[in-house]
């Protein structure tokens, strides 16, 4: 009689089986291969490598992103002066420092990534909702940011090889031949980096951070010299009175909203941090201190350009293109490319990788999920989405508005309800008696708190009549969700604090 061969066992399933054996020997709940693989597993405390410098360089890169410069320079265009811009960024920086510490400490304590962290409040299966909301937005932005970086790459290529300009005139699915070459080249670079896992991302961020800080500081000094050592601290239409203060606090609130995605999944990085103190120090130097440096550079760049010809730039890339020396232009473009890749990896690549790994833990590891994320970011032709205001404003903006309520539910559950007591092994079991099984794997109370608060946040963000409150929509959504969940959740339960060390893996694997 012919016997069919046994189905192949993937590395991911084998890892779950090994973890299950360790759990059983410790008298813990059975580990399910539908919830566990090496990339979703908690990280061992011993051997973690993310130091305060590692955390600092994350912010050294992300804070100085081109998108952030465009936002901050926009405050100058709205009529805020130098000290007012610094105050707006300072307000946002203090709030972010507090929020990121709360989020980061969760990763240090548990060693788990965001999709698994979401199981605490949403249930072992309901967590897919949170992971998809965060990862889905990130996949689109990964493609968009790669496209924006490819535009800088095209400028560099034509500056070095002017003959390539002829390849930039045709159109293939929305991009020129040179545009496709630039996009695919940068796409491949990012896929290669991610294929080596979080440790390679840590090393790349550590390399890119000093490069970015030096480049923008040098650009500010050059512009100051070009302006004769004198810059304009305000435009001809500067704000005053109540209107000024609304713009200042609105700018600070929007600054927090920009990082609304990152405060959610910061644990993806801090799960490999050596200690809470490392997270605090890295956040301190990377958020309030670094953001004040960022603000000073913004004031110098925008004020110097306004002094020179009375125009307001929209991005440092506008200045880079005017550099008269080809050599310096190439160096500046390379720095912008290094920066954009660094920002893309941390903000828009890691989240969807963990999202996909969480959806298919039996089949996808970090590398496989990274490739799939990148392919999706390519096939959606992101340049067409970027040029469509409906997609950017309503689709991505609408999803972004939901991230505030999501943050509110997760934080209220972890800090206010459970007081940071988590049974980590139970996050990986499908046993109905598990702490996070709730009803068939879904915590309906968390979903109940999420839906109305999300609708309110979206309405505040998009209804013209509520435009004055729109900058604060993230806070409204997060606050309402946290309050609703706090009052409807079962606060009388006894919560166990159980370490995940028995089923943990090395943070570098």
TrEMBL record:
Keyword annotations of the record: Membrane, Transmembrane, Transmembrane helix
Gene3D superfamilies registered for this protein in UniProt: Hydantoin permease
Main location class: membrane
Membrane-spanning ranges: 69-100, 120-144, 151-167, 173-194, 206-225, 245-266, 287-308, 328-357, 369-386, 392-417, 446-466, 472-489
GO cellular component terms listed in the entry, alphabetical order: plasma membrane
Subcellular location: Membrane
PANTHER family with a match to the protein in the record: NCS1 FAMILY NUCLEOBASE:CATION SYMPORTER-1, NCS1 FAMILY PURINE/PYRIMIDINE TRANSPORTER
The protein's name: Nucleobase:cation symporter-1, NCS1 family
Source organism (scientific name): Arthrobacter subterraneus
């Amino acid at each position: 009689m012919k016997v069919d061969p046994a189905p192949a066992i993937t590395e991911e399933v084998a890892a779950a089986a090994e973890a299950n054996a360790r759990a059983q020997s410790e008298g813990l709940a059975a580990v399910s291969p539908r919830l566990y693989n090496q990339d979703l597993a908690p990280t061992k405390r011993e051997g973690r490598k993310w130091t305060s410098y590692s955390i600092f360089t994350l912010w050294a890169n992300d804070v100085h992103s081109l998108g952030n410069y465009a936002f901050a320079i926009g405050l100058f265009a709205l009529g805020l002066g130098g000290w007012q811009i610094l105050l707006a960024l300072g307000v946002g920086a203090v709030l972010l420092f507090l929020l990121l510490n709360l989020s980061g400490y969760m990763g240090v304590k548990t060693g788990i990534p965001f999709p698994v962290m979401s199981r605490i409040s949403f249930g072992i299966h309901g967590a897919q909702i949170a992971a998809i909301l965060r990862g889905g937005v990130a996949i689109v932005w990964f493609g968009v940011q790669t496209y924006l970086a490819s535009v800088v790459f095209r400028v560099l290529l034509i500056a070095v090889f002017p003959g390539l300009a002829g390849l930039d005139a045709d159109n293939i699915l929305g991009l020129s031949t040179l545009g496709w070459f630039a996009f695919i080249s940068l796409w491949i670079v990012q896929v290669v980096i991610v294929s080596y896992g979080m440790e390679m991302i840590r090393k790349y961020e550590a390399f890119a951070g000093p490069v970015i800080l030096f480049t923008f500081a040098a650009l500010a000094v050059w512009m100051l010299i070009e302006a004769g050592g004198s810059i304009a601290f305000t435009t001809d239409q500067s704000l005053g009175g109540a209107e000024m203060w609304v713009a200042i606090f609105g700018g600070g609130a929007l600054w927090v909203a920009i990082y609304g995605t990152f405060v959610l999944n910061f644990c993806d990085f801090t799960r490999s941090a050596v200690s809470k103190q490392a997270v605090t120090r890295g956040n301190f130097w990377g958020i309030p201190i670094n953001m004040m440096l960022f603000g000073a550079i913004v004031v110098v760049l925008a004020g110097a350009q306004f002094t020179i010809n009375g125009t307001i730039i929209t991005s440092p890339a506008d200045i880079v293109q005017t550099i008269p020396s080809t050599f310096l232009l190439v160096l500046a473009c390379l720095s912008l490319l290094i920066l954009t890749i660094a920002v893309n990896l941390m903000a828009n690549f890691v989240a969807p990788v963990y999202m996909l790994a969480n959806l298919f833990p039996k089949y996808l590891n970090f590398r496989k999920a990274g490739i799939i994320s990148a392919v999706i970011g390519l096939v959606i032709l992101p340049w067409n989405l970027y040029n469509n205001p409906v997609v950017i404003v309503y689709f991505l903006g609408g999803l972004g508005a939901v991230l505030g309520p999501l943050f509110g539910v997760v934080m209220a559950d972890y800090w206010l309800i459970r007081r940071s007591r988590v049974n980590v092994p139970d996050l990986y079991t499908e046993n109905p008696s598990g702490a996070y099984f709730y009803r068939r794997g879904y915590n309906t109370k968390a979903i109940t708190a999420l839906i109305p608060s999300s609708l309110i946040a979206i309405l505040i963000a998009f209804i013209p009549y509520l435009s004055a409150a729109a900058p604060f929509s993230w806070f409204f959504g997060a606050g309402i969700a946290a309050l609703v969940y706090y009052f409807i959740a079962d606060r009388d339960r006894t919560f166990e604090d159980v370490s995940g060390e028995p089923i943990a893996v090395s943070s570098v694997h």
